[in-house]
Design a protein that fits this description.
7 helices; three-stranded antiparallel beta sheet; Arc Repressor Mutant, subunit A; 104 residues
């Protein structure tokens, strides 16, 4: 049985399908999901993200570039610092709470 949400995939044009596939690819990396989870609290600088997820600046910056390229995060410059935030909070609801489906 098809729901209206599953039928949505059937009506997307090629450009939209590529956009969705790109977002799923970028979200397939757990490190990037950790960054998005940290950004749920609000806008953060790279330095703040380093502390929040106990990562290194180079790796975080690289992953933030991937998230930005796919339109999942946005950046804002304030002097020499760059702040990142989630561009669309709907992105976070896309994966929901996986633990809810695995617990009995």
């Amino acid at each position: 049985m098809h729901t209206s949400q599953s039928l949505c995939l059937l009506t997307m044009n090629d450009e939209m399908l590529e956009l969705v596939a790109g977002r799923f690819r970028v979200l397939g990396e757990p490190y990037r999901l950790r960054l998005l989870q940290a950004l749920k609290a609000g806008e953060m600088s790279v330095g703040e993200l380093v502390k929040a997820i106990n990562g290194n600046q180079t790796n975080i910056s690289r992953h933030l570039q991937s998230l930005q390229r796919e339109g999942l995060v946005q950046r804002r410059r304030d002097g020499s610092r760059i702040f990142y935030s989630i561009r669309d909070l709907g992105t976070l609801t896309m994966w929901g709470d996986p633990s809810a489906e695995t617990t009995e």
